[in-house]
Amino acid sequence: MKPIPFSAFSFWLALILAGFLGIHITGSFVGSQKNHTLIFTKENTIRNCSCSADIRDCDYCLANLMCNCKTVLPSTMEKTTYNNHLTIWFTDTSLLEMLLNFTRVWDLKLSFCGTTPLPTEYLAIWGLRKLRVNKVKGRFPEQSVTISSSSNNEKEDSLAVHNKDRQMLAYISFLDTSLFNGYSLLKSYSVENVSSITEHFPSLLYSDVFSTPDNKSYVVTFIY
Question: What are the tens digits of pLDDT across the range 83-133?
């Protein structure tokens, strides 16, 4: 029996099928990756982006090119819960206050892209467990802190109800924005089993927010 010749048509058909299969596999892999949220301000606009890969800090052009970004108005920004990783590039504290104050964020990265020193202001963040901070032109490299309690485990949510007869465990962090001035290394300390924030910290800002009694046990962390 004579061998069947491999025609040019068969060759190109096989090449096209191989290319299609490669694109399909790549698309499936990218689609399976969890996107993270990137928010930044540029020229008096707020950009809210969904990124499948990490973007170099404060590289606005690359973010617009590689991420799915949209412009949002400050008046339309609402408090939300960020279940995935959130990155914020900022040049002043106004954006941080608008986005983070009493917002629930589990995993957060903050990158200071400005040059003017920041004032001492305090932000309250619910549920924070992982924080990375970076000042692009700062004295110190990127630093990080992980917040946990002595009873913490991997399956525990940022606000977990163990059962109906026990208290709810809530994490609340207070962030000093002047830490981005780079005068010292990132520091933090936590106080566990706080049943009343107003009683334990009577001089704390936002004390009126915590004045209502509830059935919660707080892990209170100060980051500075």
Answer: 889 999 999 998 899 999 999 999 999 999 988 999 999 999 999 999 999
User: Cβ distance 180 to 138 under 8 Å?
Assistant: yes
What is the C-alpha separation between 78 and 101, in angstroms, rounded? 11
Average pLDDT over residues 198-214: 79
pLDDT score recorded for residue 8: 56
Cα–chain center distance at 179: 18
The per-residue pLDDT for range 37-51, each reduced to its tens digit, is 999 987 778 999 999
Rounded to the nearest integer, the mean pLDDT of the chain is 80
**Of how many residues is the chain composed?**
224
Could you give the C-alpha distances from 183 to 15, 80, 90, 175, 178, in angstroms and in order? 59, 32, 18, 15, 9
In the chain, the amino acid numbered 31 is G
Residue for token digits 């061998």? Answer: 3
Asked whether residue 136 carries a pLDDT value surpassing 80, the answer given is no
| List of E strands, 8-82 | 36-42, 45-51, 68-72, 81-82
Looking from the CA of 76 toward its CB, the CA atoms found within 13 Å total: 8
